[in-house]
Amino acid sequence: MERIEEHTCQVCNELTEHLIMAKGRNPVARCLVCGGVHPITASETRKAIYVRTIVSMEATSRVCQVEMDNNEACRLGDHFVAECGEEFFGVEVTAIECGNARVKKATAPEITTLWTRKVDDVTVRIAIHNGRTTTSVHVTVPGEEPFVVGEVYKAGQRRIRVSRIKVRRGGILKNEGARIEARRIKRIFGYPI
Predict the structure, then answer these.
(1) Positions in the chain whose pLDDT score sits under 50
(2) 92 CB burial (10 A radius; 0-12, 13-18, 19+)
(3) pTM
(4) What letter does residue 178 receive in the DSSP assignment?
(5) Any bridge partners for residue 187, and if so which?
């Protein structure tokens, strides 16, 4: 079975995916970007480290930690399990802090703080348009629950039909049948039935 890991490529001079070709005392890997073959140094072997993580839960935030491998890369939008004392939460990375700078990608040892938001249960904001008035409703649902443009849902005590969905990183879904998970939704627009 082939094993792929992220390592710093000696040719590309950046963190890339590598195919492990030889294990043991002198491991060797091939970069999947440039094809270069080189030994992996002992400092690149896997070790678990804990990264300080701020978990946003709507109105509150908690300081937690995420366990990562020492050579693991992290990008905006990645998902992890954050450990907050005795509790564990599914989180999505919203910002990566390295020293005083915010970056889009970094390896675990470079990261000072991960800024995340809880996504196992999320609060979806729904704007219900009824003629000249708009009512705002908040509904808590599992982060993976899909919402579909044109479908009927229960929002509080009302039944609504979804007309548009504003995406957190992107535009607006307008086409009937377009679907997206709740964790990726910024706001749902609908009208009462």
Answers:
(1) 1, 44
(2) buried
(3) 0.58
(4) -
(5) 166
